[in-house]
Specification:
- α9 runs antiparallel to α11.
- The chain is globular.
- The protein is α+β, with helices and mostly antiparallel strands.
- The chain is built from 14 helices and 21 strands.
- A hairpin with a 5-residue loop joins β2 and β3.
- The chain folds into three domains: 162 residues, 3-Layer(aba) Sandwich (D-Maltodextrin-Binding Protein, domain 2); 112 residues, Dipeptide-binding Protein, domain 1, CATH 3.90.76; 199 residues, Dipeptide-binding Protein, Domain 3 (Dipeptide-binding Protein, domain 3, Roll), CATH 3.10.105.
Length: 505
């Protein structure tokens, strides 16, 4: 989920600021960039609620700490490939149930403690603990039946069932390694093995990281200080870029301003892919949404193209199930629920639902939700569903909506391969399907590529058939940054800003 995104907003005069900033000459901005060759300031849409990705679900956490402060056994690269990180190599048994990781030697945490196999065992035992709030607990860590540490640099993980995505999972931010002595404070003072340390966190404004000179490859790290500024308002993002207050927005969300930056020689604009699945989530537990006909009516009521054009200026792809077009084995199911308001009305009538049907549409802060929610409400109204919009801040969304207290909401689930949430009846949308759980179990146990692909397609089709949610968009990753800044990710296979290869040209 976007885990999901408080927030710093410029509210007064932001448009006039943007216009004024647009007139700033190239020479002063170039001078600003040259004056800070070893610092980078990036804009972020949302402020993280915590800095411990192993205990909190917000995607914004990974944007700050993943690969910068905290590392895992493997690394997911910008192209989605998997390479060694804290593990220098691994071996999988023939049955796919046991992985032996050889750990990198000479690695230390930034507090001086030694990284070893005990650190891995501690972190994964913590993730498996009954009190754990790790969002990957059910899909990943509960599947680990045994952890052994034959020596300080070897970890053996034995799984209950084979998982063809296990090495990918080990590179996600839920699997980062924490040291036992500092893990309890990771939410506010994370200590890791990465190239940076937490410098400061000015709540509501910014998080600043500083280069850790004791990092194992410190000479390769060119940026000494990284600041992540929280700018939720899209006009303020544009103004900050034009004024030189920030050097880039890795996830720029003002598509209507994109052409302005594409034609400005001071900036670089890159379009990439994401693993995101933007959905209008339906509370399957609540009446009348527990009736599949009502959920199908909602799907037929929505014009995805109009939504994408209105919110993203066309810079997104429609989806028909909870998988991204970049996923291996993706099935295009966008035609299952064609935009058909009359069909939607007929399904509501068939289900015995009187109209107007009054519902609440809860919207978290991101622009795609707030702006998109207005579009969705207008479309729903045309089939007799009156959606009262409730705007909430991120903490409210996590504390209420994500706990199952909602009718409808809009969210971009950015985690890759998170389809196993549909096998969890306790997950916030409340989908309880033995048929899907059986399919998911077969897929997890399958070792042949052909069988896995078939089952992956079957899962997609079942989610679509059951209209669990209204599947809307897979967003394009849009990065805007100052010319001369090199190494920022253009795509988002996971939500991270890997600063280890970033530099000023």
């Amino acid at each position: 989920m976007n885990k999901p995104y408080p927030l710093s907003r410029r509210t007064v005069g932001v448009c006039s600021v943007a216009v004024l900033a647009a007139s700033i000459a190239w020479a002063p901005l170039q001078a600003q960039a040259q004056s800070r060759k070893d610092t980078v300031i990036l804009g972020m849409i949302l402020e993280p609620t915590s800095l411990d990705p192993t205990m909190a679900p917000a995607a914004a956490i990974g944007e700050v700490v993943h690969y910068n402060i905290l590392e895992g056994l493997t690394k997911i690269n910008v192209d989605g490939s998997i390479t060694p990180l804290l593990a220098e190599s691994w071996k999988m048994d023939a049955d796919g149930k046991a992985y032996t990781f050889k750990l990198r030697k000479g690695v230390k945490f930034s507090d001086g403690a030694t990284f070893d196999s005990a650190s891995v065992k501690f972190s994964f035992d913590r993730a498996k603990d009954a009190k754990s709030t790790n969002k990957a607990k059910g899909a990943v860590f509960n599947n680990i039946s045994h952890i052994s540490t034959p020596d300080a640099h070897t970890v053996v993980l034995v799984l209950n069932k084979p998982d063809g995505n296990f090495l990918f999972r080990m590179g996600e931010n839920t699997a980062v390694i924490l040291h036992p002595d500092s893990a309890a404070n990771a939410a506010t003072k994370p200590v890791g093995t990465g190239p940076y340390k937490l410098d400061s966190w000015a709540k509501g404004t910014a998080v600043t990281l500083s280069k850790w000179d004791g990092f194992r490859a410190a000479n390769a790290i060119k940026v000494k200080k990284v600041t992540f500024r929280f700018i939720n308002d899209s006009a303020a993002q544009v103004a900050a870029l034009l004024a030189g207050d920030i050097d880039g927005m890795p996830r720029f969300q003002s598509p209507q301003s994109l052409k302005q930056f594409q034609s400005d020689k001071r900036f670089v604009v890159e379009l990439g892919s994401t693993a995101g699945k933007g959905i209008m989530t339906i509370n399957n537990r609540k009446k009348p949404f527990d009736d599949v006909r009502v959920r199908r009516a909602l799907s037929h009521a929505i014009d995805k193209k109009a939504f994408i054009d209105g919110v993203f200026e066309g810079l997104a792809k429609p989806i028909g199930s909870h998988m991204a077009p970049t996923d291996a084995g993706y099935v295009d199911l966008t035609g299952v629920y064609a935009f058909d308001p009359e069909k939607a009305k007929a399904l509501l009538k068939e289900a015995g639902v009187p109209t107007p049907l009054n519902v609440t549409l809860t919207l978290p802060p991101p622009p795609y939700a707030r702006k998109g929610g207005e579009i969705l409400a207008a479309q729903l109204a045309k089939v007799g569903i009156i959606a009262k919009i409730e705007n909430v801040e991120w903490a409210q969304w996590l504390g209420g909506t994500f706990k199952g207290n909602f009718d409808l909401t809009v969210i971009n689930h950015v985690e890759p391969l998170d389809y196993m949430n549909y096998a969890d009846a306790a997950y916030y949308w409340g989908y309880d399907s033995k048929g899907f759980r059986d399919l998911a179990a077969k897929h997890a146990a399958a070792t042949q590529a052909k069988e896995r692909t078939q089952l992956f397609g079957d899962m997609q089709r079942m989610i679509a058939k059951d209209a669990v949610n209204v599947f809307l968009f897979n967003a394009t990753n849009t990065a805007v940054y100052r010319k001369g800044l090199k190494g920022l990710w253009s795509s988002s296979p996971v939500f991270a800003n890997d600063m280890s290869a970033v530099s000023w040209q």
